[in-house]
Amino acid sequence: MPHINAAAALQICALLSALPAQYFISQWYGTDSAQRIQKTERLIIASWRSFTKSCLSLDAWADRLKLWLSKTRTCLNVGLLISHFRSWYYGEKKTKSGDNEAEIHSYFAESTHVRSPKPDYVQFSVGQVIVHKRLGYSGVIVGWDVKANTPEEWLQHKYPPAKQDLKDTPHYRILINKANGFGKSTAYIPEEEITIIMGLEVVHHPDLKVYFSGYDGSKYIMQPWLKKIYPHD
């Protein structure tokens, strides 16, 4: 029996696999040119759709960003990154101070300037669980402004002439409990529309751990970066 080396064995295997490979290819592409062209077009279209869905979709990139942020261990850096990204997304304005430094003022209680001292008329605190008096959804406070701090267009839409006085009352940014199925993940609402719930820990939201490290029985415990912004809450 003749000796067959590795190279010869590889050549024999390639020859033996050629026939079944040709059979499967012919089954896939059909027996005539029209079928081959039609199936090739379908393959190209399907590949393009898959590419655009995974690489050209804003939702896909947002999911990748959220996954990356969830794996980041430094909460301070994560919080600041989210704050700056949202500031850019919702719109921001810059003003120059006397020493020529730019200060960023974010809308919707996302400004990183320190809330100190805390006015007595701001009744609620970051970390408290709330329920909306009229709509019934629950959530947790992650920020507040002494009065509504939003684009003028938002204020005009939110507050008709009969409710203009609400613009000057404290407003709170809320992470809405996903278990409510409300359809929105956050809200920015005036103080008179919410009430506090004591002893309720269960708030489900994908960003909860970015803002809080745990629950102490009465409210959620702020992450260090958030505590620096709200030192009196």
TrEMBL record:
UniProt KW keywords: Signal
Domain of life: Eukaryota
Keyword Nucleus annotated: no
Entry's Gene Ontology molecular function annotations: DNA binding
Domain Hemimethylated DNA-binding: 121-223
Pfam families: YccV-like
Stretches that traverse the bilayer: none
Signal peptide: 1-18
Protein's recorded name: FBX21 protein
Native source species: Brachypteracias leptosomus
Gene name linked to the record: Fbxo21_0
